[in-house]
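Give me structure tokens for this 293-residue protein.
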Amino acid sequence: MSNVLLLRAANQGSPDRYEDAFRSRGYHPISVPVLETVIVGCEELARRLSIGPEKQSLSGVIITSQRAVEAWSEAAQALIIADNNTPLKPESDWWSVPFYAVGEATSVALRDLSEKIPLYTPRDIRGGSETGTAERLAGFILKDLPSDGTSKQLLYLTGDKNRDTLPMILESAGVTLDSLQVYATQGSSMFPHALSLALEHEGSSWGWIVYFAPSVAEFVTPILRNHFALPAANSSIDDCAQLSEHHHVKVAAIGPTTESFLQQTLKLSVAVTAKNPKPDDLADGVLQYDEAQ
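Here you go.
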């Protein structure tokens, strides 16, 4: 049974479909998280909070993830410390505007925030289980906003990889979005350590490394080269083959975009690309390749 390194975080609290797919085919999958989310723009968000919604002509706030809730929490706590816990000023009263949440988890996180932090936090939280996608949330907001003919502007807290679905729907209906990036995704600072632990505990029987995104590939490959002999494109000789202490592996990609990046930019040989970006298709491709060898 050979190890398969999955460059992704496993699902927490439920069976992981990618791990299950490889395990059912006789492999030993190991998922290692490669990304982390960091809060950005906290000072600007705190400034917005201190001004309050009325002076910014805001009709509400859109929160699309728990990371955005965390960013709001950090900004609110920073203001409370700066204000030395003075009472909330009327002009900074965020209780008066609705907060629109994507999905139940985000809605619950907002409610928890309002209970833990008394100042600068929401009271009117709308949406939840019925607004679990961008499309549903946009439709909910359009129905919920007053149809009194006045212009509507919403503060929209985003990350660095948000889709444009929600902005397109709202703006096409005449709603103005004041977008503010409050979190960003980057390579995990813990990846080198997590990889070393996996190598230490799982022995030397490594068969495959599976890439799931070009951005991940660019970050992790230099680190992987410290431990693995990665197959070079257009060559029958593995990269670092002269280093016997390196584990020799084959490379698989979740889809053609990742495959192209691995081959053209990182000059790696990709043995398998999933026919569809699904766990079973990926695991089937790896198994069929091994059986053909």
